[in-house]
Amino acid sequence: MSFVEIEQVVKRYGGSIPVDHLSLTIRQGEIFGLLGPNGAGKSTTIKMLCGLLDIDQGSIRVEGISIRERPLDVKRRIGLVPQDLALYERLTARENVAFFARLYGLRGALLQERVDEALSFVGLGDRQHERPGAYSGGMKRRLNIACAIAHHPKLIIMDEPTVGIDPQSRNHILDSVRQLNRMGSTIIYTSHYMEEVAALSTRIGILDKGHLIALGTQEELRAQLAEEERLVVQAPRVSPEAVRELSAHPRIRRVAECEGRLEIHARPGQAPLQDVLFILSKHEVAIESLTRVEPDLEALFLSLTGRTLRD
Q1: In this structure, are residues 238 and 257 in contact, taking their beta carbons and an 8 Å threshold?
Q2: What's the pTM value of the predicted model, to 2 decimals?
Q3: Are 217 and 202 spatial neighbours (Cβ–Cβ below 8 Å)?
Q4: 28 and 1 Cβ atoms separated by less than 8 Å
Q5: pLDDT one-digit tens code per residue, 42-72
Q6: Secondary structure class of 169 (helix, strand, coil)
């Protein structure tokens, strides 16, 4: 069952188009991983979905409700965990959660119950009367989540929820995402950590330059590379001439270079290893390592966008 429907959505800023006729359907009850390099259009898409930016063209519906026609009804269904912490330093943790819960109309005994529940869920019940300034980075991130879920949203959007935190807090947040999903929430999850998206997501969409360029389960996405053989060369510097000569080789489909890493894609069983070594040697490339690797999500992302996720 479709829960979020994005149809031919366009957003323009002057002469640029960060989101260009984007169509995407997110199913009820799934954890949907949204990936893309910087400038791909992820943040703009999320802002339009939350009603924080107007849509120039197309439509967005949540549970069949149009964000344009009934924005408040859509917003009530959404909990946003933003990348930039949305907390009031002068309020205690409990007061922060209560403040955001009141924005969704919670009052009285129900408000207090939901605040207790949210703080307990993120493991901050015993420190609820402290201000965020006394918290570690991981605790602030968990409080950020509590503020977003107290009203029991049907759709939770998590935008880089584990940035800059310790491994223990990160694992706590990932477990929380799974538990929220088991409790019935549909989740959209963005991250610059590929392993997080791979560990959590039921389906993954990859954006680049405002377009959806890949969509599917991890198995479906990896299958796109199954018909290729991949060589990975680690070298501190590869000249443009070497890249051009490799790219022109009849048995090489494409070459991607990023941060001292050269990826060479060839037809299965046809990777011209000797030719690759000859070309790199001719152009005086100092090879640190050369490996033949199986297709994975990181490889697909680099193959499609020419960049790593953290670029």
Answers
A1: yes
A2: 0.81
A3: yes
A4: yes
A5: 999 999 999 999 999 999 999 999 999 999 9
A6: helix
